[in-house]
Structure formats: structure tokens, C-alpha cells
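Title: [Solved] Phage tail protein 3D structure

Original question kept below for reference.
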Amino acid sequence: MPSLNDGAERITLRIGGVSHNDWLDFEVDSDLQTPADGWSFSVGNVEAVLPAEVQAGARAELRTGDDVIMTGQVDEITDNIGRNQHSLGLFGRDASAVLVDCSAPIFTARDMTLQEVIAQIVKPLGVTAIRIQAEKPLPSKKASVDPGDTAWDVLKKAAEASGLWPWVIADGTLVIGGPDYSTPAVDTLIMREDGQGNNLLRLSVTRNVSARYSEVTVLAQGHGSAKADGKHDRRCTVRDTSVPFYRPLIEVVADTDSDEEVQFRARKLMADARLQGFLMTAVVKGLRTTSGQLWEPGQRVQVKSEKHGIDDIYFVMHRRFSGGRGQQLLTTLTLREDGIWLPDAFPKSKRKRKGKGKKALWSSWEQIDNG
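Solution (posted by the thread starter after getting help):
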């Protein structure tokens, strides 16, 4: 195993049979909520002729030691040549890039299930390594698809109709599902006033009320069919009692198939609002946890900060590796409240643990009205 968190590790970019790991600077991003995670590398003193394998559109793999960080493609190459200078910039994204860039091969509007979207849109674009990560079999809920929609937009709509979300992991596998909040924390990040045991370089905490709501109501209707009449009064209201003042949100959904779909939409809106109300950014040395595991989105981590009054578990939503020649190798983690994002993928794993003096989400979130 490579040395842990000592700055000696290097990120290697492999394109075809060519690899390089001596960078002027680099950044590698991975975010569960952002499609097509990106990376950028810059190289100085480049050889006069680039290897034939280094081309825009080529398959690329990012590694450190024996571990894969990201699999995807080279999007752009910038070749800068001046007097006694030759530098190169390489930019790329993960394996979902083709889904973000390309339209779904659909020429007439239709409704499609998630399974149909995978078979008819995702796989024909070359994304064939796919894993469903959810506790229960997926219901056959359909999402509307229109000509001109990108493949990623169609996939996202179909996944959300089943209470799930798509993202791509390091080896290029497309995962459709949600986090399992029963998994243990991968590390403990510490910031004590006396400095004993500290492993955090920086810790920033932001609380924002502008996106929070005390009450979310979804109003909807459902079209009729040969077997059932249409329904025009579907409604669900969800209340967050942790918001101490009246801040309502009302959303109208044009067409729904069931009361359960309206209830899910209301719960998701409230969960998303709660998610945006708290942001923690942590910066640590190196690429790995103390146990040697690479930092990655979807992990859970314990954070203890005396000055912030924090001692609890948080969810890693975004991770950035950065460094370069003469620079410290750093990991920046974007952390959100644990147990809130996509809670319906693994219902039994909903966060039950409470931190010191902290109220769990589920004790302050109540569904008060169903249509």
C-alpha cells in the first residue's frame, strides 16, 4: 500500500499506453449531485511531439497506487508553445459525460420506465456497466421523455420517479440508487483548541435559512384511463417543525399516477430544502483516510470541532483532490447533514443516531396531510 497522507502519493493519468504523474497542478472533482465529474491537469516542459494516444476523446483513467480514482474520457487538450516554453493542459470528465452531452435517441414523446431508459437510451450510448443500489425492487413508474432531452436528463427523471438518483463511481460503473446510512463512518476529523490529535487543516460551517421551509405542499392531478377516472385533487403537505417560523412552499405538478408519487415529491422537496440549509467544508492532508481508504463521495465521517461545538456524523457529498509540483496534496470535502439526501432508497437505514444535543431529522419532519 502507498504511504498514507504523507504527500508522497501521486495521481497518475493513463491514456492508452501512456501515463504521467508529474503535474504543475491538478484538480479532480467528484460530486454526487453533479453529472460528469471533472478533472484538469497541467504539464510543463512537454516533449516536442505528443504521443499519438493523447487525443481529445480518448479513454482516460486516473489512479494512485493500485487504486482507481476516476474512469472517463479526455474532453480537451490545450497545447501552449512559446519561446523556450511548452506546456499542456488536459481536461476531462468521468464515464457519464456522453450521457450529459448527447440527446436521448427518442424522436417522439413517450412515457418510459427506468428499465426502458436503461435499455433504450443509456446502453446504446456505450454505458453498459450499471448497478441498481436500492433496498427494494423498483416500481414501474414512468417518466415523460421528449425529443431533444439529453440522455442524462431522461435518466435523472426516470430515476427520480422511483425515488433514486444516478451517479458514476471510480471504475466507470453507473449506479442508480441512494446512500445506505447504516454504513459506518470511515474516519474521524478533529479540530481541538489545544491542537492535540488535530487532522483538519480548515473547517468551515455555513447555516442558511433562505432555502428552508416550515411547510411544503404539493398539489397535483392525475389523468384518466380506460380503467380509472382522472383525479384532480391530489395533495400532500409535509412540515419541518425545526423551522421556528412560517415559511411555506407550494408546488403544482401537472400529472401524477398515484397519491404515493405526490407524497414522495413533497418529502423530497422538504429533504432538499433541509439539505441546502447546512454546509460544512473540511480540508485535510493527502488523499486517504487514516485507514488507507481513498476519500470519495457517499462516505460518512465523524467530525469533532470544539470551536464549532460539533460532534456528529456527516455525509460526504463532494470531494476534490488538488495539488501539484511544490504544492501540498490536499482533499477538500463538502459535507451535508447525515441521513437526509435520498432517504427512501434504503428506508431501514434512515439515520437514528443522534449527536450531542442534536435532533434527528425524523423527529422534526412530519407528514400532516394526504390527498
